[in-house]
Amino acid sequence: MRTLSPSAEKICVIAVEHFANSGYDACSLNDIAVAAGMRKPSLYAHFSSKDDLFQAVFERAVEAERLYVEDCFAHPHSDVPGGLYCQRLGERYLGSAHLRFLLRTAFFPPAELRAWISAGFEGYLARLAALFVARMKAYRPTFEDGQAGLYRDAYMGIVDSLAVELIYAGPEAYSRRLAALWKVFEDSLALCAPEK
């Protein structure tokens, strides 16, 4: 992640809200500049283009959410690995412009930045998956790599499904989906192997 001046960081803080709420195409650099207390030409002193600003905001969103994920996995909420992250995802989505921006961008990337965004988002997901596997191996030391991989993929499917519900259906649908999927996930783990 590139280092920015304090003024450029302030622009990114404002821009993440705009991009999260409006998306790339509908977002106006002029509106961002006005919200930052400057004129549009001054914004170009910090960012060469809308793409340049968007990329800086994306890098910061990925980093913010990576740190959040690591914090969730550092403090397990329940006996089942990954529970805290899933339980808090709806609340995080409503309260974090970084997460709203990250998910919106991953699901609806600007065409010219698609490959770059996909690589960044896949890196974020890979970190989430790695943290889950590490927690799973501590939770079920008897699991072979294949079993841990199977549960990793199921967990990532749950995370993806919850994100879809938040983006398309809202908090109530997310809560219903979470309750159903997490119950099945916990039951499956309970049947799969004896606890340590």
From TrEMBL:
One Pfam assignment: TetR_N
Start and end residues of each HTH tetR-type domain: 5-65
PROSITE patterns per record: HTH_TETR_2 (PS50977)
DNA-binding region, residues: 28-47
The entry's keywords: DNA-binding, Transcription, Transcription regulation
Record SUPFAM superfamilies: Homeodomain-like
InterPro entries given in the database record: Homeodomain-like_sf, HTH-type_TetR-like_transc_reg, HTH_TetR
A GO MF term: transcription cis-regulatory region binding
Highest taxon of source: Bacteria
Name assigned to this protein: TetR/AcrR family transcriptional regulator
